[in-house]
Amino acid sequence: MTLLDERRGGTHPAASGTPAPPAGLAAWARDLGMGLRFAAGGGREGWIRTLLTAVGVALGVVLLLGAASVPQLLQGRDVRGQARQIAADMPVKQSSSSLVAAEADSEFRGTRITGTLVRPDGPDAPAPPGVTALPRPGEMVVSPALKDLLASPDGALLRERLPYRITGTIADTGLVGPNELTYYAGSATLTTETEQGGHRIGSFGIDVGEATPSAILVVLIILACVVLLMPVALFIATAVRFGGELRDRRLAALRLIGADVHMTRRTAAGEALFGSLCGLLLGGLLFLVGRQFTGLVTLWDINAFPSDMTPSPALTVLIALAVPAAAVAVTLVALRGVTIEPLGVVRHATARRRRLWWRIPVPLIGLAMLLLSNRVDEGDAQVNPTVVAGGAVLVLSGITLLLPWTVEAVVARFKGGPVPWQLATRRLQLSSGTAARAVGGITVAVAGAIALQLFFSAVQSDFTSHTGQDSRRAQMSATLPSHDMSTIRKMLKEFRDTRGVRSTIGVIEASVTRPGPLRKGEEFAPSTTLTVGDCASLQELLHTGPCKDGDTFIVTDHTGTADDDYILETARPGASVLFHADPQSGKPVGKPRLWTIPKETRKVRARMDPSGSLAFGIFATPGAVDTSRFHEPTARAMLKVDPSVPDAAEHIRNTAARLDPLMQIITLHHTTRDQQFTSIRTGLLVGSTVTMALIAASMLVSTLEQLRERRRLLSVLVAFGTRRATLAWSVLWQTAVPVLLGLVLAVAGGVALGGGLLRMAGKSTFDWSAIWPLPLAGAGLVLLVTLLSLPPLWRMMRPDGLRSE
Amino acid sequence: MSIGHTLLGLLESGPRHGYDLKRAFDEHFGQDRPLHYGQVYSTMSRLLKNGLVEVDGVEAGAGPERKRYAITDAGVTDVAQWLSRPEKPEPYLQSTLYTKVVLALMTERNAAELLDTQRAEHLRLMRGLTERKRKGDLADQLICDHALFHLEADLRWLELTAARLDRLAETVRG
Amino acid sequence: MTPAGSLLEAVALHKVYGTTPALDGADFSLHAGEVVAVMGPSGSGKSTLLHVLAGIVRPDSGTVRYGDRELTALNDTARSALRRTDFGFVFQFGQLVPELTCVENVALPLRLNGVRRKEAERQARDWLERLEVEDIRGQRPGEVSGGQGQRVAVARALATRPRVLFADEPTGALDSLNGERVMTLLTDAARDTSAAVVLITHEARVAAHSDREIIVRDGIAREAVGAA
Question: Residue C58: which region, alpha, beta or left (left: phi > 0; alpha: psi -120 to 50)?
Fold first, then answer.
């Protein structure tokens, strides 16, 4: 800039006789300083302008600092989460410094509870992070949030499930987030033999090293950054222009007293610099204040300590430098289209038509980059982040480039129409650039959000389809942690007696193997499942027909999911099966335990069970087989819950915890409402709505600015009897037309970008429901801006404006 | 400009000797042409004859005897009539108008009204000129414009004076 | 030309802005078809008088009667409607909508009155022709000279054939020659359409285009002595 400036100066030698004005850096410093003084001491109008810019920039800076904290946030959570993990795959020898631990997670009214049972082997057993001493049997240490919950009336039911005496709280270092419900309870019985748990460890924590996130996750993170930060950048660029008209007039006054074009530009840059520096400071302050409240917010099940919200130093420096630099750059660019003459300001808004030829290739190149890049399959890390990010940025910025052209091209075609429409479209024809700039942010936000949502929904589609679970037949299911038949029966009875349980379906399953040597072509002995349950329970799994105790059934699968021939290798009426065999060779382990499948066993069809799976294999009523001969049987209980009983699910979990704190309870749903997916979707919607609100704020400011500038004209229009509604409609159209065009572009661009990403991820499902809320939000925004600008409009439509002579 | 009316107006604020009258006249209105003492005497004797002033008293002194003049009721009426009568608009009126304004202020009459009256008179003439211009040829228009601009200049001066009447009043009375 | 009754009559108008009285018992009457100049020093309340007479501003007290209607008793909607149909306005500057072309500006009040666009623009062209600015009809106000702009404003004010034209310093921003021309065109056109004109001006040469003048001083309007 400075060099350029000097070169220009050289072509216009200073008039002889006058002292040469300071050149280069000195001139820059002087003029920037003058701008700073203007911005700081410009009277009320000057302050309002500076304030608007500062607040706008500050909001952007808060978002940027928040984004810069994400690495630290995630890392902090990861580090603390890993530090308390139980390394199940690295068992240690029993010693005085080892302990046995088992995960005993639960859920309370939809909130996850992270629980761990611990049993020290000796006095030197280590405590988990954040805990000073391991709890003794019957005692527990809890997170502050869990302590509060248990102490509150709401937590009474949970208290039943965690009957341990609270002997301490877990410090922050042992928690992933401040709102986390976590406990460590001492156990006297836990062994490594215990079902579903019991790992002997020498210390807490696992070292997974530098985590390599999945390729798809990388793509998502890059996209999220681009999508959320581009509008912020655009917003900052808009905020710097707040009050530009007023500033231009002031600069014209400067020209009148002898400032040259370069001086005025540098002065303007100085003003912008001051505004953005104030914004930077204000943003920093807001961020510091705001992070104290991070603990109160839970987003996507993530909730963080204020200390986690620490922006990375490199990014902070980058923000601190880039924001003011961008402010100066934007001002200089904006002034390119304006000639400030001593007697006024001339805009070349219509002088140069926007050209399409160089705009079109940008998004196309971006799309091509996405389409030509490697396919990402799950786990495959062969994705080049630069290509993805570059492609996405090109597509999104291509949209912002296309927008001004589109607005100009479309608006130019509008002729006639009712008066409000005419007023609005003529205004847009004259200054489509301002409108397009304001809307640019919305367009990027919406396009990006659409693309992300499409991508999310496709990636998640495998898991979100109809689960097949039938929540009318049973609502909860549990795998019982016992191989002992009498215990299993007792447990099933306990569940039956629990408050809120209508009925239970209980089955005991064991594996049976075909006896005898391997046949030709077999690599292992065929086996299948033997399921035992009473008629009522079996009828939930099979189309048994008439059933009485002592009946047996063989189930082949009519859907073709399971290999019937393979099942029938083992499950033939009259054939014998082996209860305990080596899974490879099929040879009996110990004394062969054999059972003969009765000849009269009927072949029946399976029925979808409440958990959505199709059973197959051999089924027997208790009278047909002696379950005590089973090797390692497992029992499943499916529970039908009475919906009229409040907290039925919590009562059931309490029962489960009483039977065994390690028992897993699963809630059955008609469809999987993948909590994470829903919350990501909500988060995106919230994020893009916040971005849009931010943009709405800047649109509002520019609308008001424009109205204020036209105060006199408005008064004149009122004088000759213009209805308020006429002007209100014109404001609405003036906002709505560019937003509508922006949204059309955004949907097109978003679908294109989303499509490109989907192709890259090798998916093809398209979830159109991901798209419609965003344009809807955009429309709401237009209404909001219009509504908010109405009161000032009414005020300005008073005849006072005529008096300013 | 009527010296008689001016001197009458000066007497309205109180009786004065002839020499006082000359001094007051010179101070307020005689910047360019001071009044000759003889003019005062001849004017005063004319006013005495017309009953507009009377001799308030005679002082004997070292020099010639000095008569003190006072205004009569008829004189006051005459001043009022003169002040409220607009001057025929013509160039170089300002000395008369100025005298009238100052006298109106000194005699605590409404000077603004005096200005309004004069403006109306000017406008009447200007309307006629404008109408003539409307119908006339270019030569007519140019001649009318000359008159119009002069008349407007008078009026502008009047407006300016009116706007500064308060300050003028302080000077004159103070 | 019209019966004795006045077209627009105001009695004892009072209006205070903040603590400054703008009108302090002003009276006013206007007969159909006459041109009345309102003169007076700056800040005397001239413009406020015009705003009150035109029903733009409601006085604190006093009444304005237009024909057989009491303007001061009408609500905002009714007054707006009246301004659209019966009144026209010319101001000193900044009255043309900068985005609209000249012809669209002139057509605007017609369209606000419900005239269809084609017809409104046809009439607007006639008016521009009459005010000798037909050639700039496709240009925007920013591209024409001050004199041309004021002529467009006069055309716009007269396009609805108002019964009263309110002109607030219509030539205030023009040089003598242009001001003269605009005034001549304005008064001629007003007389042709028998519109009465309330003309605010501080210039005697402009006021000389009127039939009579009113002086406003300290918020009081008075008929000039000796006129009429």
Answer: beta
Chain B contact set for C213 (CB, 8 A): 119-120, 123
Identify whether residues B93 and B54 lie together within a single domain.
Answer: no
From chain B, the residues in CB contact with C175 under 8 A are: none
Taking the Cβ of residue B121 and every Cβ of chain C, the question of whether any pair is shorter than 8 Å is answered with yes
C182: burial class by Cβ within 10 Å (0-12, 13-18, 19+)?
A: buried
Q: Are residues B105 and B126 in the same domain?
A: yes
CATH of domain C8-99+164-223: 3.40.50.300
Counting as contact any 3 or more CB pairs under 8 A, the partners of C are A, B
Reported ipTM: 0.85
User: What is the number of other CB atoms lying within 10 angstroms of the CB of residue B57?
Assistant: 11
> How many residue pairs bridge chain B and chain C with CB atoms within 8 Å of each other?
54
Whether residue B154 sits in one domain with residue B121: yes
Q: Where do the H-state alpha helices sit in A42-179?
A: 43-83, 144-151, 156-161
**Total tally of structural domains belonging to chain B:** 2
Considering the domain architecture, whether residues B62 and B126 belong to the same structural domain is answered as: no
Contact between chains at B120 and C39 (C-beta distance less than 8 A): no
B41 and B99: one domain? no
Q: Which residues of C151-168 are buried (b: 16+ CB within 10 A; e: fewer)?
A: bbbbbbbbbbebbbbbbb
Of B63, B85, B107, the position where a domain reaches its end is B85
- Can you tell me the distance from the alpha carbon of C165 to that of A668, in angstroms, rounded to the nearest whole number? 80
Residue numbers of the domain that contains B48: 1-85
Cβ B123–C224 below 8 Å, yes or no?
Answer: yes
Mean residue pLDDT across chain B = 81
C-alpha C48/C-alpha C14 separation (Å) is: 10
Tell me, yes or no, if C217 comes closer than 8 A to chain B by beta carbon. Answer: yes
Which tens digit of pLDDT belongs to each residue from C52-91?
999 888 899 999 999 888 988 988 888 888 888 899 999 8
Residue of C nearest to B145 (CA): C205
pTM of the model: 0.64
Q: Which residues in chain C have their CB less than 8 angstroms from residue A802's CB?
A: 47, 51, 56, 91, 168
Smallest Cβ–Cβ distance between C84 and the set A712, A720, A802 belongs to A720
List the single best residue of C42, C184, C225 to mutate versus B (max B Cβ within 10 A). Answer: C225
CA distance B110 to C140: 50
Nearest residue of chain B to residue C224 (CA atoms): B120
pLDDT tens per residue, range A11-20: 344 344 445 5
Average pLDDT, chain C: 87
- Shared domain check, B131 and B105: yes
* Closest partner CB to C97 (pick from A713, A721, A723): A713
Report the residue from C184, C202, C226 with minimal CB separation from B120: C226
If asked whether residues B137 and B66 sit together in one domain, one would say: no
Q: Is the CB of residue A691 less than 8 Å from the CB of residue A228?
A: yes
- The pLDDT, as a whole number, for residue A671 is 45
> Do B93 and B168 lie in a common domain?
yes
- What is the average pLDDT across A795-800? 74
E strand or H helix that includes residue A346: strand A344-347
Cβ contacts of B112 on chain C, cutoff 8 Å? 217
Mean pLDDT calculated for residue range A409-420:
85
Distance from CA of A746 to the nearest CA of C (A): 28
CATH code for the domain in which residue B57 is found: 1.10.10.10
Domain parsing of chain C, residue ranges = 8-99+164-223
Which amino acid appears at position A317 of this protein?
V
Q: Is B113 in the C-facing interface, judged by CB distances under 8 Å?
A: yes
